[in-house]
Amino acid sequence: LPLSSWATLSNYFHEYIQGGTYLFQVSVNNYNPTSEDDYNNPLFSSALSRDRTLVLTWDIETYSSLGLGNFPTAQSDESNVFMICMSVHWKDDPNPLKQICLVDVETAPDPRWITVVCGNQTNLLKAFALCWKNLAPDIQIGFNDSQYDWRFIVEKAKKLGILEWMFNQMSLKPSCLEKISKWQYQYNKIKVNDRDFHSKHLKIPGCVAIDVRPCFMKFYPKAEKSSLAYYLKECELDNKLDMPFQRMFKYYGRALKETNATTAEQMREVAEYCIIDAISCQRLIVKHNAINEYREVASVAFISLYDSHYFAVGMKVRNLLSAGAWQEGILTSTIPCEQTEAGKYPGAYVFPPVKGLENRRPVTGLDFASLYPSLIMTYNLSPDKIILSRERAESLKESGKKLHEIKFKFNGRDVLAWSIEHENQAEMKGLYPKVLERLLIRRNLLKKRLAPLKDKKEELEKEISLAEARGEGVTDAFKSEYSSVSFIVACLDAKQLALKVYMNTFYGEAGNSGSPFFLRELAGGVTSAGQKNIKLIADFVKNKGFGIKYGDTDSLYLVCPEECFQKCDEAYDSGNGISKEEYWSQMVKISMGAIERLCDEVNDFLKEDNSSHYLKMAYEEVLFPVVFTGKKKYYGIPHESKPNFNKKLFIRGVEVVKQGQSKHFREVGKKVMEESMRLDNTRALHQIVEDVLKETINDISQIDLNGVVKTAVWKPDKNNKSV
User: What sequence ranges are listed for the domain DNA-directed DNA polymerase family B multifunctional (predicted)?
Assistant: First the structure.
């Protein structure tokens, strides 16, 4: 059933109940997904993508009469919530339809929002419930509200004896206090990168609560901070107002003691601060197209929008596989495998990097396209096609079946299994390859639609930049066109990225011992096949005269044979001929042409080797100059369609970009990288590092001590507690 995408109802019954509420009754057979043709129909597409889903954002302000040193808690009688601010928006609009400030003391009005003075905390909480009832939001968002705001509101309402009343105002489905506390006051453990985010909120039927903080922690996994102000800055959005809580406590403390024009105006300032924090959540969500992205992730696997936010991608893949199995007439269990033996599978094969600066010849990346999904499709690696006994394998061979052998080491012993190859026959393909192939076809179609729209967006951005450089304004019609194209690009990109995430998770789910789809032989079969193929291609390119600078998992970094550069070497003549920039540009162009020809040869070789079209390599970019410092650690100037020595550096894994480093360390590292990439550089990397360090020591008196502070994140759930 399509729980998060559009559906078409037919032969349904509906009736008006009360208060703007309708009851729909429909047979499950008459509840069908909207067709792709309808999605692409210009008459419907805009209404379906920019639908009027109502989003409510909120923020609360709390106070403790015990003073500044005491953080307000719901359990304390000396703590109270004195302000709740809300804004409501259509899903894709950062501009609010309505803004509301609920406050318990006299506050000066502001024409930008509705101010409701409630008189006390109990009335404030009741007013919040009544606002919710009348707005009936589809989605509610806040920043870190599942770790503070919701907990404070719910526990304070429970303490005041009004939680049941509030819930029954907010929900169409009434309940009692015991059931609300047990089933509706929802705890979730959200997986954020390698940590758990502990979330708790009041689950109102018909509304999905989304905490923006864990959402953006996933968007920025390497960020050292996770504050609202930090994310606004990263997204290049207007910053929130700055109001230290000491000043807020002072303002509210005065307003409690006396009411006059000054205290009312000061409370209006607090309201503005609170309102902006609430609206900022929607601005972030719209900027990252987060709700549409959640919807796309949910629609692929037939899950709800709630599941998309609160559950890791592994659960979603399980649901997708179960749906695929159901279509094939196969029943699957959702019961996790029993405790299995711990251990490591064979890892990816790594060709050690040739360390140091390479500014003599360009280095070109040759990558497998979606390696692990491609291997699964190529070798028919699926639980229903894996053979674990030698006797069964021999029997199948005798019957004419072609088998792919899986062999790898696990905890010091050999693991042996086989998969039945599909030989490019649809009826022979297993569950995993069938589901992956459907996802791949959908993704390729989306990327095909996306490419011209991305080009159009870039053209419009260039025109805007040129107009601004000339000091000219941009017409409203032009802005509208750019906004429309950008929105379509964001939505299509969200769809294809959702498919990519699912495809890349199949391997992880096969190797997850807590999953009902766990199969060690399948997971090990994927990595061992990856090792075999990258070694195969390495031998192939070496026989063609290409040198390997580095290789890891799914990519090789290659240098073209020397004879490719003979003519441009002669034209440069050690600096006596063409300019160095022209010489470097020619070498980059030669490398691009050579690698494209090599790519075609490699793909023909792969097709001949495995008799399928799934496993392919693609040329990504040329890096020149480039520096390799270790495994998964390198940087260089990327050249994609043509030589461009003014592009931003491509940096992968180098310590300078990792979290926890001091500002000064980053600056020194950045200087070393910039110097090594210069066109006129003649120094070795070691010499550049020495020179930059000497220069730094000479200016040591100018260094700000705050710039040498190193930060660390305490992760109590992990073993590395020491910081």
Answer: 321-458, 490-563, 594-700
